[in-house]
Request: fold
Amino acid sequence: MTADSTSEQHNSSANGIALRMTGISKRFGPVQALRKVSFTVRAGTVHALVGENGAGKSTLMKILAGVHLPDTGTIEIQGKDCKFANPGQAIAGGVSMIYQELDLAEHLTVAENIFLGAEPKAKLPLFLNNKEMIRHGRQLTQQHNFDIKMTARVEELPTGDCQIVEILKALRRNASILVMDEPTSSLSETEAQRLFEVVRQLRRQGLTIIYISHRLEEIIDLADEVSVLRDGALVHSERIEQLDIPKIVHHMVGRELNDFFPQRLVTLGETSVKVENLSSQIGIDSVSFEIRRGEIVGVAGLVGAGRTETAQTIFGVAPKSSGRISIDGQEVQINSPADAIKQGVAFLTEDRKRTGLCLQLPCSWNITLPNLDNIGMKHKISPSRENRIAAEVAQKISIKWHGPQAPADTLSGGNQQKLLIARWLLAESKFLIFDEPTRGIDVGAKAEIYSLLNHLAQQGKAILFISSELPELFGVADRILVMRRGRLVGNLDTKKTSQELVMHLAAVEENYTNDD
Amino acid sequence: MNKMIRQLLPFGTLTLIICILSALKPDIFLTSENILNVLSRSSVNGIIAVGMTLVIISAGIDLSVGSMLALVGMCAGGIMVMIPELAQNDSGGVFNSMLQWMVDNPTSILLTGSLAGILVGFLCGCLNGTLITKLKLPPFIVTLGTMSAFRGVSYVMNAGKPFDVPSYTFLGSGLVPLYKTLEKTVLTTAGKLEKEVLEVLTPWSSVDPQNLEEGARVVSHGIPVCIILFAVIVVIAGFVLKFTRLGRYTYAIGSNRQAAFHAGINVDKTLIAIYTLTGLVVAIGALIATSRTVSAQPTAGITLELDIIAAVVIGGASLSGGRGTITGTIIGTLLISFLRNGCTLLGISTNIQLIVIGAIIITAVALDQMARSKAQTTKS
Reply:
């Protein structure tokens, strides 16, 4: 580990310190989200904060914005100690945060949004002074050279302009520190370029900007300084001149694999799943790949790269616009999850609470839900036999529960996940798609899930394993597909590639294949 | 343990009410006559509440059941009235001779009307389900709309007037006799009129009126048809909910519609089936209601939907879906019925009854909620 003591590094810099967070730790239940992070930002700079998904960037910024309270550590803004118990206090302290999902009231006008919660008073109490609000708003836009109509409704604006409204909102609050979380994730190329101009201009006007992004090219382009978070710790902080993309990627990934992952001892069989030129309106474009029996194929990519969308399209959750899916050499027509399940496809969704389990219902019901037909209960359910069947599968993968009739929400996260795996085990699916199966579960349960994946592969099943954690992809998968902006940009043999290359492909525009 | 208490709560309340009434008015309340009366009065609500239970478990709501009841009644009643009228203007042909035959066999008219009513209920339910799933509208909105529309149609059908069907008595007041008695009213020495049972007869025995002794009559004793119908529907619905895929899918959709969809359940088809079944049971309820008053009223069942929802909710179903049982609903329905009956017997006005029932609804749900949040905290 090469953790730098950032506070020392910049003490002597020319600019004053706008923000100094010292020794920040935060724990959510069993997860240590941040460990003693010390983070310093010089005034009037654009400071990029990078890291893999789950590295702790959002948590750190939410602590700064008063959404979460830190367990330990202090925050200093312009040399003054601050304690933000809620977002209102952070705003008053000069910190404004622009979230990835913008925080605007869509049906209100631009001016109403900018002044939300601080509307200028009219002469009569309880009335609003619209004229004054619009005048003040125009003044603000002129001051910063923005071109935006005060009376337009936010829902009519393109996403790029919505960002501007958020920025205006922050300026109206006299923010001195502006945090932007993935501002370009939903912008077009030209909109993004315009936003960069705005960011540079704000910097010239003396604002301090903390900029979170996965897109490393834009960071190289825009930032003065970069800090890298990994596993909740700040591992590196340096001026941009000393950095390039490979170096940043190295700091982001830089950890080693351990025997946390199972031994892969599988002889691959015939081609089981063949996906050709699969496209869909929900954001995937000519995705093609093959999976052989017994093979675990990982899918890497940033959030929004189209990984989940690919799974949804295969499983019939969203309609495909073109492309073919074949299983065991036969083309299959899948228009709904019901079709997919009939064809032997299983999909463990990334959000088990929203799209996986019926939490209030008994565990056994959750296991048998798509399987009533093939356990001979098409016409009449036999509760005692159902419980027995569920208990058998549950035992196979050692689910810890309070009996088959206990509601699913009485189980821990890892056991809930296993409940869903039990469901698809019972369905005897040939092709299993796992979307972030280890998200939000503890380390022990993760290891169990890995060995289950391995076990399923040994039984000759084809497995597609979507994950945002590169180490687990490298630990479990035989091959790794890399997606970027809805396209497949890499198809790599795990043994012949590196985490740096995968990260590079996922974050930088380029195509690469080492598969023969 | 908590779960047990929660499930026993409505049942306990019901038992308590029955005990109190038995203690206060043993001579009136605890007669088979009164109990059967309460049960047959609750049969219409109970039958419809069974359908509503399915709907509410699926996280839906059906506000149109009251209006649907009126519409089914008006359609059934209308046909029963129209057939003899049509038969009168003799236009010849096969159709007319068919009508003539029906007039000669009046039971067939009643049967045709009833079947037409069932069909209307089926179609109304199907319409609700289709609008909800295909237009992707919330059930509250769709059934609020059809509530108004169905009511409108039932007013239009006979310009706001009812259809009288004096011969349609089987469902409302018909009995399945268990035994018959030969009775006579006699004047006692104390100067009171009292019934005297002369002879107990088998249910199938018939007595020639001419052989009867002066002042004597034959009285049937048995279970009202509507109670039997109620019981049959309860048993079927209980079975469907517990032992069939439809029942299981209803719980799954109500608990988490997205998860149900991802588990390969055809959510639309299931929801249409649920609302259609509700239409069917509303139709059966409507026929009983029509038969009880021997007249189809366009104003029948106004605010009925609220009574039904109250019964289902008191029975422990959750308006956010995924929870509820037929047993609970039956207890909820009976609780309201016995409460009404008790208030009447004790001379409490209907206005006060409304207040009491309102308080019971809120208390029932509040206690349920409290028990549940306690269960939640002990869990984590």
